[in-house]
Amino acid sequence: MSRGCFSYPQLAIFSIGVFPWLAISASTIFLAPDWPRRVALIFHRGRELPAPAKAKPPPNCRKQNWVLSFVAIYIAIQALLPLAHFFYPGGIEWTYLEHHFAWQMLLRRQITTAFFYVTDPNNGKTYQVPLSRCFGPLTISRMGWRPDMVQQFAQYLAKARLPSGPKPRTAQVRMFVSINGRKPRLFLDPNVDLAAEPHAWGRPRWLLQIDQPRPPPGQDFSENFFVTSSEGN
């Protein structure tokens, strides 16, 4: 129960998604094995619950081998899949790949500002889309470590209005991100039409490289650069 007592304050104080609920649910493994029957008795007072089924004879060896093979494959996937980010170039704190079935979390603090531009090639007109009218500060900040969110929004903007001619509208993004106190850098290639780019399973080609080392302890080069939003994750 100490796990549940520890997780509930986290749920009330921090915005960390489903993790506290998972921890509270997992704490039931420390209860007595018959706790589900005790809970069921609360709702079935006056009625006798069916007796637990008698122990069945052990399964044959063939079934056991199938079960063990499945468990071994499952454990191998759970152990190897979180290591996939080592096969992608660039730091994981910049490529956001630590959030794809990985074990490395809460590694960074980023400050983000972004400018979305939509162009109609049929008449040559370009206009800027203010993010503050579409999203709150938290969503804008999350775009700084979720390039897939940026691409989805760019594709939405390109299709939100019909073009004035046969050519589809394009969407370019100029996004600056400061991670862990580094100086702000361009996060995405501003010359790429994200509305026409396919979804990538690995590192997108339009995600730029980062070549800045982390600043010395106590120094933060991101201060006074942006006032848009910031979030640690």
Q: Summary?
A:
The chain has 233 residues and is α+β, with helices and mostly antiparallel strands. The protein has helices spanning 2-13, 19-26, 35-43, 61-80, 92-95, 137-142, 147-160, and strands spanning 109-120, 125-129, 170-179, 185-186, 229-232. Strands 1, 2, 3, 4 and 5 form a five-stranded antiparallel beta sheet that branches.
Descriptive keywords:
single chain, 233 residues, alpha+beta, 2 domains, five-stranded antiparallel beta sheet, 7 helices, elongated
Describe the protein in words.
With 233 residues, the protein is of the alpha+beta class. It folds into two domains: 1-56, no CATH class; 92-232, no CATH class. It is built from seven helices and five strands, in the order H-H-H-H-H-E-E-H-H-E-E-E. It has helices at 2-13, 19-26, 35-43, 61-80, 92-95, 137-142, 147-160; strands spanning 109-120, 125-129, 170-179, 185-186, 229-232. Strands 1, 2, 3, 4 and 5 form a five-stranded antiparallel sheet that branches. Helix 1 runs antiparallel to helix 2. The two termini are 27 Å apart.
Q: Evaluate the radius of gyration.
A: 25 Å
Main beta sheet: 5 strands, antiparallel
- Into which percentage range does the β-strand content fall? 5-15%
Q: Pairing-aware structural class of the strands and helices? A: alpha+beta
The total of beta strands comes to 5
N- and C-termini, Cα separation: 27 Å
- State the shape: elongated
How many structural units, i.e. domains?
2
Give the uncertain stretches in residue-range form. Answer: 226-233
How many DSSP H or I helices?
7
The helix/strand order is HHHHHEEHHEEE
Question: What does the average pLDDT come to?
Answer: 76
The percentage helix is: 25-40%
